[in-house]
From TrEMBL:
It comes from the Bacteria. The lineage of its organism: Bacteria, Pseudomonadati, Pseudomonadota, Alphaproteobacteria, Acetobacterales. Keywords: Transferase. It comes from Acetobacter ascendens. Residues 355-464 form the Glycosyltransferase 2-like domain. This is Glycosyl transferase. SUPFAM superfamilies: Nucleotide-diphospho-sugar transferases (SSF53448), UDP-Glycosyltransferase/glycogen phosphorylase (SSF53756). InterPro entries: Glyco_trans_2-like, Nucleotide-diphossugar_trans.
Amino acid sequence: MKCQDLSMSLSGDIKKIDWSVFDATWYAEKYGDVLKFLGIEGAEALEEFYREKGPALRHSPNPYFDEDWYLRRYPAVADAVGKGEWQSGFDHYCRAGFSSHNPHWLFDREFYFKQHATLQPAALEEAGFRNLYDHYLNVGDEQFLTGSWFFNATAYLKSGLARIEGLGAFAQCVRNLKPEQGYGQRLSWYFDPEWYLETYPHVRKELDSGRWLSALHHYLSNSTPTDYNPNAYFSEEFYGSVNHDVSGAVESGNFRNFYEHFLRYGVHELRKPSANVDLESYYRNAVVQKEVTRGDFPDAFAHYIAHNGRLEDDVEGLKESEALSKKLYHEMCQIRLPVLLNQTLDFTYDVPDLSVIIVAHNLFAMTMSALASLRANYNGQMQVIVVDSGSTDGVRHIERYVRGLDVVRFPGNVGFLLGCNAALEKVRGPFTLYLNNDTELMPEAIGNAVARLRHEIKIGAVGAKLIRTNGLLQEAGSIVWRDGSVCGYLRDQRPDVPEANFVRSVDYCAGAFLMVRTPLLRTLGGFDTDYAPAYFEETDLCLRIHEAGFDVVYDPSVVVVHYEYGTSSFMSGASMIARNQDVFRRKHTAYLRQKSLNNPRMLTKARFSKQDQKRVLFIEDRLPYRFLGSGFTRSNDIVRSMIAAGCQVTVYPVFRPTESQEDICMAFPDRAEVMWDRELPELEDFIKSRAGYYDAIWIARTHNADRLAPVLMDCADALTGTMVIIDTEAVSAPREHSKMELRGQTPEKTVDDLLKHEFRHLFMAEKIIAVNSKDSKILNSHGFSNVHVLGHLQNASTWSPGWEDRRNLLFLGAMHDQDSPNVDSLAWFSGEVLPLLDGRLPEDVKFTVCGYINPRVDLTPLINNPRVVVTGRVEDVTPVYNSHRVFVAPTRYAGGIPYKLHEAAAHGIPVVATDILCEQVGWEPGEDMLCASISDAQGFADAIVRLYEDKQLWEKVHAHELKRISTENTQENYVKTIKDILEIL
């Protein structure tokens, strides 16, 4: 028996697994007792029995569909089967439910789709799949993809159950589901069968009687789901009692129980799963966040379960392990040595990109490891100068093993300083790298340092993030105090802390890795011999680089592991340090007079060499990634423009970010300090720890002024002299009022009342920012005269494809929640406008929906339209804009100016928008864009067709919008406005 109306092949191939067929072999094994009693044998007889008697017995036709569970899970279907509308649950699933219902308790179609959003109906159909389950069984299962919170392929395969050749983990599991296989087999983090059976002993009795296949089967199939907790960390009673917004949805059957809501939504919102589990606080831990964003665990709750809620700070342990880690590092160098001696490192060159100076006094194995690391790190031509400072080991004849070295030899140990100065005479490269022989370079260290010097001509030297063998920082740039003492910034901290991961101008960087412009180095005469044989020589050199008008920059993309004190004894150098500090202090009196007194509370300010830059604390809802849209792109532009204006910017989120480290690194200028490991609860302590540091606090979005008001008042003494700026981003009261009216709701308050409430904390601001003149006038009318207008930054495209080279319609925007304007506009457009395009535009003209989609947003009604293609977030929007002919902005209620409208215009794609957006942007309808009323779906559809088909009209709008962007939204104007707001001369 087969659901013939759904049968199709996979691009010409035969399916390995088909959920729509009757499996006689499995059926005979599954229901063997009944079948043997009735004497039914043979495939035909089994199928006939199933067809005639199976539905009444709630038999399943194959292991991939569970009839009994299906009817329990969907009572409406069970009622329809009882009335004879469907032969069985399986019949319903094959003919109607396959696109909206789940066939088995170990598969969830919504979960699977949210992990793989490209699996839309049109794409599935094109590939020959009938639904998401079809794809999972035949592709996802073999690729170890996850189809449910309650089934993890790796966990199942670790169970030790008999393997079935040729089947994925899920297929094996459902075929192996038998009581005798064990009740307590754990299949995921989210359900603990052992705890479950201990907590609910009556379930074990029901399992022993054969009523259920496993503890998980009982949990997902029982008729009173809110009576059972899945593990020790979630409580149905607690979650239901504190989340009143969920109770109604559970009672009405939208969620099977409270745990389903928690897994779908609550875990992402960091709601408490039980009285004793504070998921929000737990997720503040940097290690937890790192491991979740890296993908080690699917979310904070799974991490909590895996670690039983215990977190260990192993920084102290790492400090204590340094002696052992150094020993291991030394041993690894010895282990590498025979391998390196049996191959030839080659540093021959014609015209070197840089010169490298390495001073070695013995430590042959370490020196060879450092050279091997250097060669592997950079493929370009390098001149490597090794100074043999009186070595008595293999360094004496290092040329035997390394080709192309320039070697300078001394009969005795002359030390680092004099050895480097002697080597400087041989340097031929435009940049000179001082590199210790007890270092190992991390990927791209040389290339990143060279690129920094090539691209920023005012930088004289670049230093590295130095990491000791125990994995903790040696320094992230170094500080000079007024008394001439020095310290490595963030020593003993983790290398991934935010403070260590942005580029900044510093007093100096250690000579273990210091790359300097060779002409400047020659002008300065190398190291000052007054510091011979060592200590303070690189500090003195860096200060002389500053005095020559150049920057010394710490670059965290240049990462170096440093053995530290591998070439000398720290204790034996103590007296030399004291002597040279006195020399240093006398030589740099003028520079030192500008430095801070040596005090730990001054570290943050002292970490910069430049003290004349404006320091800005920029606070947003979230880290403002460009892909988030909804005003975050504008915030990202503001941060970039502040840095372009010469500011030191700290970006601080109200809500801790959940994105990956890769997203964080790629999203912001490398000179932005991005506090990815903190959020609002830590803000007060953060501000107090940096008392007097910031010149301005820029608060993005009016609602954040509400959140921050009590914090700023509590920190008032730490903010003396700090200018508070509130960027409204968009005045929202008119938008909220319009939304209620559109939904047929009667607003309880007038727009004016809503505005008074919205503006209630703007009194804190010395300056207020509006996104356009319309919002500025509203603010003025409510008594705020300190308003500046800062719109959107866009660079008009100098070239984009013409009308003939473009096709399809485009919507690009972020969808953060079900109640957002973008989700509303798409619902209106797909329901009211898209149908009006049928028969007027070719069927193969698609409507692309592109942009960030929160996992909580349900776009199912949209993606079921065959004309719609949902791409989700893309890394580069330019190819998307360039391939589409018309951009649609069907916004029905909005505040400010949607960034996407300006961005589309900057890419040269003409826009059809609602009259609301036309008014907000201030452009001329019919010239700069086409507009239609939100109450006129037909007019909106007509505008799309006109713009899509009329090449002359398209080209006119295209030219006009680019002219608008090139005159109204330039980088130069944007930076100038920000300088005026921040009072930068």
